[in-house]
């Protein structure tokens, strides 16, 4: 899943996190990995953001118990 995301006109951090990761709970993670754009509230079209994989422990938060047991 790691890669990049090119913004659309009017995108906000939470909407991007939801679109890329499926949840707004990754908004902080997305922002931490895109420091040059932290002052941006609403994006213009065409800004390329880094979208690293979320931390492994946070992936398990959304999983049912039967998917997290080894």
Main sheet makeup: 2 strands, antiparallel
Mean pLDDT: 86
Q: Which term fits the overall shape?
A: globular
Classification by helices and strands: alpha+beta
Can you offer a commentary on this structure?
By secondary structure, the chain is of the alpha+beta class. It has 4 helices and 2 strands. The protein has helices spanning 13-21, 27-32, 56-59, 65-68; strands spanning 3-6, 48-51. It has a two-stranded antiparallel sheet with strand order 1-2. The chain starts with a strand and ends with a helix. The mean pLDDT is 86.
Short description:
The protein has 70 residues and is α+β, with helices and mostly antiparallel strands. It is built from four helices and two strands, in the order βααβαα. The longest helix has 9 residues, at 13-21.
